[in-house]
Amino acid sequence: MNLVDKLPDNISELVTAGRRKQTTSFTELIRDGGYVPPDINLLTDAITALSMGKNILLKGPTGAGKTKFAETLSSLFNQPMFSVNCSVDLDAESLLGFKTLAYEEDKQVIQFIPGPVTNSMKHGVFLYIDEINMAKPETLPLINGVLDYRRTITNPFTNEIITAEDGFGVIAAINEGYIGTVPLNEALKNRFIVIEVPYIEGDQLKQVIQANTRLHDESTTDLFIKLSSDLIQAVHQGKLTEDAASIRALLDACDLSTLIPPKRAIQRSIVDKLDEEREKEFVKNLAETLF
Question: Which one Pfam family would you cite for this protein (predicted)?
Fold first, then answer.
């Protein structure tokens, strides 16, 4: 079944007859490691916002699939995507580009190498800003004009005024409450439509495990799904940090379990990533009970 067939008619038209032609089927999307939303409304709302030229902010725990979600949206709109990975070292050059020395016919010249923001604007494609709240608060205001109705920026390195081509859109992702992150200021947050991305569970998680790992034994797969459910519940109850329930880590454990015992796979992929002994013991006890 085509993924877009699951969407309301007026929304699927935004993809199939909109700025980009959609070509990815639901089966292909899963097989290629695409994001399978736990609620089709997540996809509907994201497509709606992007098709109307709005920016979206994917908000959720680590390992919930935010980057996969962004890649899937890019695939559905059948266009490439430039990426920015935020950190405290992010600066104007990382966003916009930099000058360097080059040679033209044996003559040395100064050449400007475009960065992800300028590239995505000039090509009219998506820009993905990962972990946007890891950047220093004084850095991101550089692109405020890119994120609002103006869709323009003055390149401080070349003085060129850049206006985004049709098709340009911004998808950002945020993990709240982690070490090194800072709260987004209201001026920046107000430039986004916020979409909460929860963990995937149940049958959808089973599809992802079958499509993206080497684990094909159904009974073992069901045990990992139960483990994931127990971990997510423990996170909601405040017994574990969100890292413990990362779907990314669970998929690693599923892969390893095809060659080493599942409990050891869980130890390497999940338990040893945790900092608190109390949390490590909690997860090990769950693994002992299930496996």
Answer: AAA_5
Neighbours of 260 (CB within 10 A): 12
Q: Which segments in the chain show pLDDT lower than 70?
A: 1-34, 176-182
Single residue among 175, 196, 217 that ends a domain in this structure: 196
Do 27 and 111 belong together in one domain? yes
Among 165, 196, 227, give the residue marking a domain's end.
196
Burial of residue 74 (CB within 10 Å: 0-12, 13-18, 19+) is: buried
Domain count for the chain, please give it: 2
Question: What residues pair up with 194 in beta bridges, in sequence order?
Answer: 57
H or E stretch covering 98: strand 97-104
Chain center to CA of 93: 23
- Residue 185 is given by DSSP the state P
Does this model's pTM top 0.85?
no
Q: What is the DSSP string of 9-41?
A: HHHHHHHHSSSS-----HHHHHHTT----SSHH
Same domain for 109 and 231?
no
Yes or no: say if 116 and 84 are a contact pair by the CB < 8 Å rule: yes
The predicted-structure confidence for 115-173, as pLDDT tens digits, reads as follows 999 999 999 999 999 988 888 877 888 889 999 999 999 998 899 999 999 989 999 99
